[in-house]
Structures are given as structure tokens and as C-alpha cells.
Write a structure and sequence with these properties.
By secondary structure, the chain is an alpha/beta fold. It is built from 13 helices and 27 strands. The chain is elongated. Its EC number is 3.2.1.141.
Length: 572
Amino acid sequence: MRNFSVWAPHADDLQLIVDDTTHTMRRADDGWWAPETPLSPEPGMRYGYRVRKDGGWVGPWPDPRSREQPDGVHGLSRVPDDDHSWSDDSWTGRDLPGQVIYELHVGTFSPSGDFAGVIDRLDHLVDLGVTTIELMPVQPFGGDRNWGYDGVLWHAVHAGYGGPDGLRRLVDAAHARGVAVVLDVVYNHFGPDGNYNGFFGPYTAGGSTGWGDVVNLNGPDSDEVRRYVIDAARGWFEDFHVDGLRLDAVQAYHDPGALHLLEELQIMATEVTAATGVPRSLIAESDQNDPRLVSARQAGGYGIAGQWDDDIHHALHTLVSGERHAYYSDFGTTEVLAKTLREVFLHDGTMSTFRGKRHGRPVNREFTPASSFVTYTTTHDQVGNRATGDRPSMNLSPARQVLKAATILTSPYTPMLFMGEEFGATTPFAFFCSHTDDELNRLTGEGRKREFTRWGWDEQEIPEPSDPATFEASKLDWDFTEGQRDILDAYRTLLRLRRENRLARPWLYDIDVTHGERWVAVDRGDVVFVGNYSDEPVEVDFGGELIYSFTSPEVGADTTTLDPWGFALIRR
């Protein structure tokens, strides 16, 4: 940190509080304030800032660039001790192509609900075939239970998970086992609980993203706000040795300028990669079906490594579950699944019934590797944004669960698992929070109930987000039944076969996708995947040697008969 300096162009005056001692601050022309008498930060010092605005003093508030918040978002900041003895000098990193990502929520992944609990399960993940873990946001939020998307101090680590030291230990332990670490970061809005940044400067620009005020990325004084974001991202790479960042909802970045924030973030990641020799990747979440995110900068894109692809999820989910409501309305046939597996998006300039307009644009498959698109059978959103947080594994038979997994894991795209799906978890992952403001908790719960009762849900069935029981029920149960062990074995086998048969070959044009009314086949040349997405047996014109199936197909020289909801991986 810069000798207790802080950017506060909105303040009429400012005081630094360090261990109960008040220090006078002096403002520079650029809006940065520094102690009038130089003061060197020492690890362990507690500090904050009192701000004078419109004749009154408020605070002390945490440092917007705080690195450590031991008492939560409303408490004083602490000068961190960055003297971590890293043991990952031999870590060479992982580029996105060829990876298997595992998304997890630190608080509900393990019984202890912290970084140490994730370390305890790393061997399980390595044995499964996972090469990268993606942590849902770990920046500080109000209270002690939250998905993490209500973060307010973007340079710090939630104390309840283990703080900065705990995150470093997790990254070190993961690298020792050959596992990369990606952090989910939210730069599109600030959370509603404990956000004092507005007292210091124009971090927001008015208008709403639907989750909070728009971040000031292109208005007056936005240069420092952009630097705030880029420095936060750089810190995860340089100070915490993190391998990648998943950027939440980038369509909500209001940035109409010539140099988009995404491009600046990619430039920074490239600089860190060059300086350290360890690849640093960015993965974007966007609902725009816009391949420019992963197109090369030389071709007018942003040049980032990957983006989430909801269309393949929607096509698979609707076909197997039968759900066709809301944004699923255009999905639900084998033709749609075949198109998404072949061309990435269903909506690539086509009409979206749900949106009432054309949506998306085509992917240039000749120049865009399939590894640029992250695919999945489910995610935290696709579970937690349901009324009760019910998982697909709580509603589908083992055969249907494994069919979905096989469809994703035999495709050329970068696969991502959501914690617990690999063993058919029967615990929900509901939306939960623990805001420190009771009124905010009340409004959050009422908003959830209002949203879902419109779709016909009984209000009594919708969990109360602030109830500790909602959080506790969402923790994974690691005591497996025999049926869950069968599903786990299937996932392990599919991931092993993905490696052994080089199914992660990234180029889209080396696949041929065909379909019938009830089946879809993905021809990878020497290996063919064919799945039956119906409750009746189906015969398909693919034959050869059976490599693997979860059910009992009849595989002949020229044809194969698939069980209901069955699949076959066939060598020709």
C-alpha cells in the first residue's frame, strides 16, 4: 500500500485513524490524500478514514483498497502481512485449452466452510480428473453467509474463509497437486451492505444494473475507478499467484469508450504472464452470445481466453428435464442441441422468443477454438437461481445425470463441473445471505418470493435467504450412498476417457454433429458419442467397439441400440 494514501476527490477534508490515533491528511491535485506527517504502514496496524463532506464528519470507514478486513466490511482495515513463504516456484501454470474446471462455493463446499476445507478435498478433485478450481467470489461482503456477489472491497479476502493468508495457502496447496486456481470476481456493481466507497469518490455513475449502481467506467474521474479494478485484478495474479479470473456478467460493464475495460484487463494479464512465465487467463460471463469476447485483439475482439456458454446448457437441460419456461422457451429438441454442440450458440443472430428480438452473432468456427467456450450441465446460477435451489441431481435419475455429463465431457469445449454434481448431490444450493441490516434482509427475501410466486411457486416453499438454515442445508454432504458412488465412478471414467482419447482437441471443425428425433451423435473421427434423449430405446446407424456406457447398449458392427436416456462412446 502507498503509505496510507487514499483517493478521495469527493472529500472536503479527510483524517486517517491508525490504532486510535488521528492523523491529518493533505490532498494533492489528483484527488489523492496522504498523511501530512509521513507514516509507514506496519503489518497488523488497524486503520480507517474519517471523511468530511458538506460540513460534517462521517466514519471512520475502511480503505477502499483494503487488503484485509478482520472485522468485516464495517470494521477498520488492517495492514496485511504479505510475508508468505511460497512453495510453488516450479508451477508453470495452465492455459485454458485442455482444462477441466470445478466451480465451488467456499462456504458450502466443506464442513468447515473455509479455504482449509477446500484444501482437505483437493485429493478428491485430482482423483476425479479436475485440473482447475474456480472459487465463487471471496471478496468481503456483509455478514458471514453470502454467495459472494455482494462484495464491496475488491482488493480484500473475506475473513470468514481464512483471509488473505488462507487464500495463499489454498493456492499453494492446489499448485502442489497440479491444480490451477481461478477466482470469480465482480466488477459490474458493488454490494448493498458496507459499501462506503461513494464517500470517497465517484465509484458509481448512476443507473442500475439490476443488482446495484452502474460502476463508473467511462464518466468523469473514471480513470481512477478503472485503475481500482485493474489493480485489484493484478493483485490476485501477482500477490496471490492466482491463475485466472472469471469475470461476472461483463455485459453490465457500461464502457462505451474506445478502449474497453475487458481489453485493458487482458493487456494486464498478458503483461503478468510475460513477466512471470506463468499463464494468466480471463474467462467472461456474458448473456450476449458475442464471440468478440474471445476473438483476437488483432481482429477487433478483446482477446480473452474464454467465455461461459449458456446455450449448450439450456439445450441439454431442457431436453433431459422437459422444462421449457422463461429463457428455456426456444430450447428442448435434439435439433437445437445438435446446433449448439456444432455451432456454440443457438441464438447467433436468430430470433429469441424470450427476449422478443434477434440475439447473438455467429462464431467463426475456423478461427475460434472450441476451448474458448466453457460448457456445463449446471452452474451456481442454474441451481441457485431456482426458487428452492434444487439441483438437477435432485430431480433426475442417475442415467439422465450421467447422460448430461457424457454429452459435455465428450465435446471439444472446456468443461466445468459445479460442486457436488460429480456424485449426484441431493443437497440444494439455495440463494442465501446474511446482510447486517435487517431491513435489507427483509427486502431481499420479499423480492425472491415476489419473483417466484409469479411463476406459480407457493411462497411457503421458497427458502428465506437470511435464515441460517438455508445456508446449512446448502452444504455438501460427503457421505455417499452406493448410487452416488456409481455416479462418481462414471464421472471419473468419462474424464479419464476424455484425456485418453484426446477429446479435448479444441478445433470446432474436427467434429460432425448429426441428430434424429430422439438422438444426437458427435463424430470426433476415430471416436463417436451418441446419446438417446428419450424414454424409449432408439437404434442409430453407428457401430464399432464400445468404449464406455453407463447403461447397457447393444453395439454392433454398423448399428447401436441405446437404452432410454443411455449413451455409448464408440471406437470405429
